[in-house]
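Problem 3 from the worked examples.
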Amino acid sequence: MTEHQFEFLFKEHFAYLSNVAYGVVKDEDDSYDIVQKVFAKFWDKRFDVDLTDNIKSYLHRATLNTSLNFLDKNKRMVKIEDARLEDISSHSVEDNTDYLSGEVENAVKKAISELPEKCKIVFSLSRYSDKTNREIAEELEISIKAVEKHISRALRELRVKLKPYLNSIIIILMFGVGQLMF
């Protein structure tokens, strides 16, 4: 399979497969991520796939399976988060929020460190140095559109990576004790 054929398949089936994934996971961003994962695996196996087979059925089944695996993984993550919250419930509210804010802060730092280098730099300049997109573009000698794309990508990746910490963040915000220091 050539890159051109692969690109054609991607463009031809992405919207349909995203709808299939959305029907299972009920989240637009997650459904896009799932379909991208399916196509990445498909690309890795491109030499093993017979193009005379029904590709649409193959991609449909792969998307369903990947979506179901995603749900299963997220259920396990929720159970782990629930167990973690139960484990710390014997401490005072202030102790809990301090513990949670430290854990969330570490998770955020780790997630940011895993961003692609340019994306990490742009995101850090935007969020921690309070620079405007124009200032970042001038400093890094890239377009403002490129800055916006890097920031959007960083936020999208952080949202996915930090999803398991959503309950912790809500608890911290509800009690208003402690302050997240990013």
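Problem 4, a separate protein:
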Amino acid sequence: MKNIVLIGFMGTGKTTVGKRLAGRLGRQFVDTDLEIERVTGKTIPQIFAQDGEVRFRSEERLVIQKLSRREGLVIATGGGVVLDPENVADLKRNGVLICLAADPEIIYQRVKGKKHRPLLNKKGKLREQIKTLLAARAPFYAVADFTIDTGNISSGEVANKIINYLDSLRTNGEL
């Protein structure tokens, strides 16, 4: 049974939708950021502050390698997981990649005031940081098998759309 892998920018609902989807499908849910925290004993902001982004990406790579060998999971990834082509290859080998997307303004409304987003905690205008980072990552998110705009629908509706997509893959013998 293939994994269902949620990719996309921070604040698009990967964790919320992932938990709901896993519950509806009777699958185990894994959040890669929480898994990195469990393995390292540090929060993501601590890793970025103490060890830097390179160390975080290294830990993320190890977690992806481990999870991609398993089956039947719903995996919520960090927003930058797709920046490493090896991560994408591993996740695609045994998974269906679903990209959750949203307009930059909606992302801004969802993440403003949250201090646990290291890549957005730099000095400067948050809206501009989101737009710049989102534009830079857009081509990487294009690796998804299916994309859903989560901006104006509930997590339950997003889960329904994913389930309908998976059902269509099964019907066509692609899953």
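Solution to problem 4. The beta strands are 3-7, 28-31, 73-76, 95-101, 146-149. The two ends are 8 Å apart (CA to CA).
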